[in-house]
Amino acid sequence: MATRWSVTIDCAQPAKLAAFWALALGYAERLAPDGFGSWEEWFVRHGIPEDEWDEGAYLSDSDGVGPDISFMRVPERKVAKNRLHLDVQVGGGRETPWEERWPRVQAAVRRLTAAGATVVGEESLDGRPDHMVMADPEGNEFCLL
């Protein structure tokens, strides 16, 4: 039996970065835990000081398939290349014919750059574009394929 897991991204602005990744992945803000009408109720119940309520943001896959993603405020900035990154298969992944996949990747590049991402580079395979290396608004690298 597999173990449930989630991803945590350290960042400077959790809510802003969560909004970007919600757009990129089609995720939504994670609902408050059972028995609570809001995250604020949960914070109060557990004695979290109000000045810490914006220390994190939480997303989940509405379909319940993908892992949850947490965004946690940290004081230090990103200074090196990621050792782990997401491959966001906006084009359907490499099993999708290139003629279908690549226009979808290009459309996602336009949509995500408009939302604050930057293009790091285009990678080729067998003489044609294969995937785009991008960075989110805080510089975390990911690939679109």
Provide a brief overview of the structure.
With 145 residues, this protein is of the alpha/beta class.
Question: How are the SSEs placed, and which strands pair?
Answer:
Layout: E1 6-11, H1 14-25, E2 28-29, H2 39-45, E3 56-60, E4 68-73, E5 86-88, H3 98-114, E6 118-125, E7 128-135, E8 141-144
Parallel strand pairs: 1-4, 5-8
Antiparallel strand pairs: 2-3, 3-4, 6-7, 7-8
Please supply descriptive tags for the structure shown above.
single chain, about 140 residues, alpha/beta, Signal recognition particle alu RNA binding heterodimer, srp9/1, four-stranded mixed sheet, 8 strands, elongated
Summarize the structure in words.
With 145 residues, this protein is α/β, with parallel strands linked by helices. It has two domains: 6-73, no CATH class; 86-144, 2-Layer Sandwich (Signal recognition particle alu RNA binding heterodimer, srp9/1), CATH 3.30.720. 25% of the residues lie in helices and 29% in strands. It is built from three helices and eight strands. It has helices at 14-25, 39-45, 98-114, and strands spanning 6-11, 28-29, 56-60, 68-73, 86-88, 118-125, 128-135, 141-144. The strands form two sheets. The protein has a four-stranded mixed β-sheet, covered by helices on one side. The radius of gyration is 17 Å and the shape is elongated. The protein starts with 5 loop residues before the first strand and ends with a strand.
